[in-house]
UniProtKB/TrEMBL annotation:
Keywords: ER-Golgi transport, Golgi apparatus, GTP-binding, Lipoprotein, Membrane, Nucleotide-binding, Prenylation, Protein transport, Transport
Keyword Nucleotide-binding on entry: yes
Family: Belongs to the small GTPase superfamily. Rab family.
GO cellular component terms, A-Z: acrosomal vesicle; endoplasmic reticulum membrane; Golgi membrane
CDD domains: Rab2 (cd01866)
One Gene Ontology MF term: GTP binding
Subcellular location: Cytoplasmic vesicle, Secretory vesicle, Acrosome; Endoplasmic reticulum membrane; Golgi apparatus membrane
Protein's name according to its UniProt entry: RAB2A, member RAS oncogene family
Any one GO BP annotation for this protein: protein transport
Main location: cytoplasm
SUPFAM superfamilies: P-loop containing nucleoside triphosphate hydrolases
Stored PROSITE patterns: RAB, RAS, RHO
Topology with respect to the bilayer: Lipid-anchor
High-level lineage: Eukaryota, Metazoa, Chordata, Craniata, Vertebrata
Amino acid sequence: MYRPEANCGYSLVTLCVCFAGVGKSCLLLQFTDKRFQPVHDLTIGVEFGARMITIDGKQIKLQIWDTAGQESFRSITRSYYRGAAGALLVYDITRRDTFNHLTTWLEDARQHSNSNMVIMLIGNKSDLESRREVKKEEGEAFAREHGLIFMETSAKTASNVEEAFINTAKEIYEKIQEGVFDINNEVTHMTRKHILFSHWMVDTHCGNVFPQ
């Protein structure tokens, strides 16, 4: 599930799983490169990003896998769930449809993942307040109902992007320290070098590219 490495405390792998359109590739780019790219092509297959972070005084290598969001790839992305220790479940605050389908995606994640998975609910595009269709209070209520952590972010302004990734990683790290995750037996089918956790970013609008 993990392996301490010579130059860092742990190496963590994050997985981005989603339909296209809520800005998950932009969130990834903002976190890894600290820059915003307004228009992205649809992710085909898997894209990769990495960054060093510090948790509890330890250097952590955070590796992020951004998987394709089209429906045709959904069965493939499900194969990554079982070993996941955490997820970032993302909707677009300017599109009610992405919020309305959260329950389906959450059930899908929990059905195919570790029962101890840490899940953070993210309402992205918080900079577009004038176009908001989902109130912040609705996101908070959904998170409470389903036992999730909640945060709103903006890939464009970088608001809470850092916190979303790092706080999820911290929650997982704490579970490792508490022995909630069996580091010897879990995730070995995915990799014997890393603890895997999933940043699972969801949009329900298949086939279109939405900036941010």
